[in-house]
Design a protein that fits this description.
The chain is α/β, with parallel strands linked by helices. It has helices at about 20-35, 55-70, 100-105, 120-130, 145-155, 160-165, and strands at about 1-10, 40-50, 80-85, 110-115, 135, 160.
Length: about 170
């Protein structure tokens, strides 16, 4: 049994529509399952929204992809969430993505935010405010007892990536 939570930035492929990028990944994973009888593979797709992305464009992308997910015989039935990712976490707010995250919530998609990995604990507070269901990074929040209590009250898990955090000197 293998489960994959695959993060994809569908805008990273110039000239290819975001839906086509995700549909191709879905087809590839489905082909793997079909060709390998002894492999039980499950997966979900999480669309990465770059931290510096325009808010209106992000909201439109989330609406477009969620609408496709809900179609009969959808090309992207495993779309399960969105994630705010990208460099600049130390200095750049992702507040402009509030609308996209609200749309994701409204449409039943999960919400992940990269925050607090590189010394900006206020980004963890921002992620809470934006309705994140999971935070990637978040180590800096551990130095703020009030923030830890808020995270606990929201039952908000932190995902730690030891290799990445070591490579980027976050730890």
């Amino acid at each position: 049994v293998v489960h994959i939570e695959l993060h994809v930035d569908p805008l990273a492929y110039p000239g290819i529509a975001p839906l086509d990028v995700l549909a191709a990944i879905e087809r590839g994973l489905q082909t793997s399952v079909t060709e390998l009888d002894d492999l039980f593979l499950s997966w979900v797709l999480i669309v990465d929204l770059q931290r510096d992305m325009d808010g209106a464009a992000a909201e439109a992308l989330v609406r477009e992809l969620a609408a496709q997910r809900d179609e009969y015989e959808s090309p992207i039935p495993h779309l399960s969430g969105v994630a705010v990712v990208g460099d600049g976490e130390k200095t750049q707010s992702c507040g402009q993505l509030r609308g996209a995250l609200a749309v994701a919530k409204e449409l039943g998609l999960g919400r992940v935010v990269t925050a607090g990995e590189h010394g900006a604990k206020d980004r963890v507070a921002e992620a809470l405010d934006l309705g994140a269901q999971r935070i990637v990074g978040g180590l800096t929040a551990l130095g703020d007892a009030n923030l830890v209590l808020q995270m606990r009250a929201h039952r908000l898990p932190i995902v730690l990536l030891p290799t990445e955090m070591t490579a980027t000197s976050a730890v």
